[in-house]
Amino acid sequence: MSETGKRLWRRWVIAFTAGELIGFGCMPVLGAAAAMFLTQTLDASARAIVLYLVAVTSGLGEGAVLAWFQLRVLKPYLPALDAGRWLRATATAAACAWACGMLAPTLDDLCGLSAAAQIAIWVPAGIAILLSVGIAQTWALRGVVEGHRRWIGANALGWLAGLPWTFVLPALLPENAPAATWIASFVIAGTLMSFTAGAVTGGFLVRLRPL
After folding, report:
1. Taking a C-beta distance cutoff of 8 angstroms, is the pair 133, 160 a contact?
2. Of 41, 56, 93, 182, which one has the fewest beta carbons inside 10 Å?
3. Would you say residue 172 has pLDDT above 90?
4. CA distance 51 to 39
């Protein structure tokens, strides 16, 4: 990798990590916490619906923040990239990812799901989560770089490598762990997830050539 490519990779990883951490921490996490506090008096079904809507809406904000940080790196490298299209695509994809990710637990709260039904939902939902951002951003990259479709696989691999951190680290904690420990665990997991996804996608980014 050339020195220019290394600099681009480093800037991308930093921007990706910062954008995802800020977007995820300030939007879905805080939004869900506020919604859970404000809906304590609602019945379980109503609360599940409110939390689902908050998660999807917050996903829009998360995607917009991530896209803004990414654009700080992309625009100098790809001046032909439409910033508005990239932002809209990323925000919409993030909302769709949250909609897919929250579908099974929400339906389980509403009507109860068997283990088989949850698996039947989670398998396609998981695939959609891995592909959503890549497909959306590839649309924004069309006509801007050579081989833009490779960005779909880049994002799928990046999130596939990064997302397990958010499950593994919290799972290692005992249920009675202090709240501060849980918060620290999620912050560390989120940082590792963001860095990993950014590192993988950055490796593909430096190989994309502007048209």
Report:
1. no
2. 41
3. no
4. 9
- How many Cα atoms occupy the beta-carbon half-sphere of 128 within 13 Å? 17
Tokens representing residue 18 in the block: 């910062």
Instruction: For residue 41, give both structure tokens.
Output: 């008096």
Identity of the residue numbered 157:
L
C-alpha span between 64 and 20 (Å, rounded): 10
Beta carbons of 83 and 71 less than 8 angstroms apart: yes
Nearest Cα neighbor of 211 from 83, 88, 77 is 77
Q: Which two tokens mark 19?
A: 């954008």
Q: Is 210 helix (H, G, I), strand (E, B) or coil?
A: strand
Angle at 9 between CA 65 and CA 141, to 5 degrees: 60
Radius of gyration of the chain (CA): 18
CB-based contact 24:61 (threshold 8 Å)? no
The rounded distance, in Å, linking the Cα atoms of 165 and 177 is: 18
Pick from 17-21, 45-49, 97-101, 125-129: least confident: 45-49
- Measured on CA atoms in the order 145, 147, 149, 154, is the torsion positive or negative? negative
